[in-house]
């Protein structure tokens, strides 16, 4: 069996919508089972798991848009896609969605790293992920690129020579005018 991130949810736990209702204490056991996670769909279990993940980093009860919360949402979705892809390895559409979420989470974490580094470290630790810096940009060197670069360098040097000659000519003209004014 493939381990799931939803395994730690107790099956007797009530669904999100029914957890805080006072009438739930007096209902029949059959009704209670129907409204518990034992009979819940994967989607409903995922909502509860996401809510638990987000509660760890939420700044206030109404905080749904901060970078930390968005990172938690993305991590929950990524883990869900990973579980799904272990069962269905040929599902290319979900693989694509997972990679898109990984990229979005990477952008969010990069932003968080630039803005509030302490929060970034805390979030990474809670998510259980290791952030790696993007590699510096390196261009693949080809013959065509080398020839093009050499040509551009040569054109730049020729343009600099022309500009230097023009500056020298202008300087001589200014000096000649300055001499004429003095005399």
Automatic annotation (TrEMBL):
Major localization listed first in the record, in broad terms: mitochondrion
Protein name: Small ribosomal subunit protein uS15m
InterPro entries on file: Ribosomal_uS15 (IPR000589), Ribosomal_uS15_bac-type (IPR005290), uS15_NS1_RNA-bd_sf (IPR009068), uS15_ribosomal (IPR052137)
Family, similarity comment: Belongs to the universal ribosomal protein uS15 family.
Superkingdom of source: Eukaryota
NCBIfam families linked: S15_bact
One biological process term in Gene Ontology: mitochondrial translation
Subcellular location: Mitochondrion
One Gene Ontology molecular-function label: structural constituent of ribosome
Coiled coil regions, renumbered to chain: none
Transmembrane segments: none
GO cellular component, one term: mitochondrial small ribosomal subunit
SMART domains: Ribosomal_S15 (SM01387)
Keywords attached to this entry: Mitochondrion, Ribonucleoprotein, Ribosomal protein, Transit peptide
């Amino acid at each position: 069996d493939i381990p799931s991130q939803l395994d730690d949810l107790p099956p007797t736990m009530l669904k999100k919508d029914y957890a805080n209702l006072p009438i739930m204490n007096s209902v029949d056991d059959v009704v209670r089972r129907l409204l518990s996670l034992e009979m819940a769909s994967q989607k409903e279990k995922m909502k509860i798991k996401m809510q638990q993940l987000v509660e760890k980093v939420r700044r206030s009860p109404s905080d749904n848009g901060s970078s930390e919360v968005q990172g938690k949402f993305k991590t929950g979705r990524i883990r869900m896609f990973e579980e799904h892809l272990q069962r269905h390895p040929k599902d290319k559409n979900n693989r694509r969605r997972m990679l898109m979420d990984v990229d979005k989470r990477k952008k969010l974490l990069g932003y968080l790293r630039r803005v509030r580094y302490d929060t970034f470290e805390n979030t990474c630790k809670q998510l259980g992920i290791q952030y790696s810096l993007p590699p510096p940009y390196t261009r693949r060197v080809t013959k065509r690129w080398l020839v093009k670069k050499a040509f551009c360098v040569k054109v730049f040097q020729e343009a600099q020579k022309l500009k230097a000659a023009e500056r020298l000519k202008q300087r001589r003209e200014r000096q000649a005018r300055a001499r004429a004014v003095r005399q």
